Amino acid sequence: MTINKPLSAVILTSIAITAHATPQDNNPLKDTPFANQTAHGYSLKFDPSKFVKKTADVDGQNIAYRAVEKIVYVQHPIEPEYQTINFYVPEAYFTNGTINGYSAKTVPIFLPNSVGGYMPALASTADAKGMGGQTSTILQALKQGYVVASVGARGRTLGTEGNYTGKAPAVIIDLKSAVRYLHANDANMAGDANKIISNGTSAGGAMSALLGASANSHDYDKYFAKLGSAKASDRIFAVSAYCPITDLDHADSGYEWEFHTLTDYEQMDMSKLNAQSYNDRSTPMPKITGSLNDKQLAVSKDLQNQFPSYLNSLNLKDENGKALRLDANGKGSFKDFIAKQIIASANKAISEGKDLSNISYLTIKDGKVVAVDFDGYVQHKKRMKTPPAFDALDLSAGENNLFGDKTTNNKHFTAYSLKNSSVASNLADKDIVRVMNAMNYANNPYASQYWRIRAGTDDYDTSHAISAMLTAKLRMNGKAVDYALPWGVPHSGDYDLPELFAWIDGIAKK
Ligand code: DHB
How far is the CA of 116 from the centre of ligand 1 (A)? Predict the structure, then answer.
């Protein structure tokens, strides 16, 4: 993957980390005590007197805020360093002030998760710098007037041999527990817990989507009691999801449907990366390049052939009620639906002053893009992943590691990869795979009403079909989805915060 533009905060790539490293060494709050530790565990009652006053310069403006960091959001955490909220409130709200039309009672709560690669995630701090040293998303959100609840969660490498503590569905249980904490303490905390807006990128985007879709589903009930999660709703108001790596059980076939013509791959060499540096990409990662071998080409073909029947089984429709289908060759109205998004994206780029006249796969008439050759577009980069992209036959993918369990570090999660496995292996519990997939909850009556889904046209970490299917399914269930494929944007998030915040203000002030 080439990252050739000064994209902000989060730039992520695929990984196959199996090391058990944890980010503790890089934890800026390592020596900060937990905010709510008691003699018997952790109190679920928010203590508003515990804050620290802070200030920051954000684009020349002085921002005063209160911070309560390292609130453990469950009574009996398994990995307390990760199961925390860092809570930030603009100071003005404590003197009856208003910012951007919001008061302490009405202001939305922005809920960024720091999950990446399904790795363990420490809750981000306001003063941590984004990529390239720019101001954190948290400070930008505080400047906009939002209350910020930055959340961490367990991830797939936590624990020790025989006692892995962060395997699926730990990450979503943790994020839901954080939301429950906010609801339970709404009367005592600044911000409106009925206006929680979650934000995440990649694996974090998938979890943001799942958090919004699966709200209050009983499918997760059995996990909360053991952790001592607050007995409260885990419903959220809105979802912002950048390049969500979701629908993992169908992502392999989706990947080959889109990228099967690409026989050369180029991926980051993540083998030397430990968990600590996953979210800290200050130095570029070395790349591995290669060409698919005959066996991989055969696997690609198998998976490519699986996708149309899956897509058609969803019975998706577009905004006008037109069926979104694929024929046996992978062509049809669903492909056209994505192509239309690419055209819209290119036209937006042109309207912002980009010159796209040399791009051979676009047809431009009178300065407007009128058609895209989808197959030509796909060819503009190398593929990033080898087939199967997510459920690797040798169990080497991050997602194999996600779907391990307490005692088995890596598992398959698709019937195809189990059948064709190159190593001794088991299949993950199908209920766990199901509760990790936002697609399974689009029709949940408690699902968020408002969605903003982004996946860049240069993002080859998962198929563009994934975000398109999620969008269509949500819209069919009456959800308002703002969906776009930003032009030339690689696998990344938080690169368009002014637009994200304008969207938030639009829905929060309705
Ligand atoms: C992420 C990227 C991937 O390609 C993937 O398979 C899982 C997670 C990420 O950046 O979070």
Answer: 7
260 and 236 in one domain?
A: no
**Predicted local confidence at residue 287, as pLDDT:** 85
The pLDDT tens digits for 376-418 are 999 999 999 999 999 999 999 999 999 999 999 999 999 999 9
Q: Measuring from atom 7 of ligand 1, which residue has the nearest CA?
A: 117
Does residue 336 belong to any structural domain of this protein? yes
Can you give the pLDDT at residue 44? 98
Q: From CA 465, how far away is CA 424, in angstroms rounded?
A: 31
Instruction: Indicate if 92 and 160 belong to the same structural domain.
Output: yes
Q: CA torsion angle for 201, 205, 208, 214 (degrees, to 10)?
A: -170
Mutation test residue for ligand 1: of 1, 12, 413, 454, the one with most atoms within 8 Å of CB: 12
Residue 295 belongs to domain spanning: 251-431
Distance 250 CA to ligand 1 centre (A): 15
Within-domain flag for 17: no
Buried b (16+ CB within 10 A) or exposed e, 350-373: beeeeeeeebebbeeeeeebeebe
Q: Looking at the structure, tell me whether residues 448 and 316 fall in a common domain.
A: no
- Report how far ligand 1's centroid is from the alpha carbon of 93 (Å): 37
Q: Tell which of 431, 448, 470 closes a domain.
A: 431
- Kindly report, residue by residue over 457-473, the tens digit of the pLDDT: 999 999 999 999 999 99
Q: Which residues of the chain have pLDDT under 50?
A: 1-22, 276, 281
As a three-state string, the secondary structure of 252-308 is HHHHHHHHCCCCEEEEECCCCCCHHHHCCCCCCCCEEEEECCHHHHHHHHHHHHHHH
Q: Do residues 213 and 110 share a domain? A: yes
**pLDDT given at position 268:** 79
CA–chain centroid gap for 135, Å, is 20
Domain identity same for 90 and 112: yes
Question: Ligand 1 pocket by C-beta < 6 Å: which residues?
Answer: 12, 14, 116-118, 202-203, 245, 390, 398, 461
How far is Cα 119 from Cα 121, in angstroms, rounded to an integer? 6
What ligand 1 atom has the least distance to the C-alpha of 115?
11
CATH of the domain at 160: 3.40.50.1820
Distance 207 CA to ligand 1 centre (A): 12
Q: Are both 175 and 216 inside the same structural domain? A: yes
Q: Are residues 231 and 84 in the same domain?
A: yes
pLDDT of amino acid 271: 62
In a domain, 191, yes or no: yes
The pLDDT assigned to 5 comes to 29
Q: pTM score, two decimals? A: 0.95
Number of domains in the chain: 2
Instruction: Give domain status of residue 22, yes or no.
Output: no
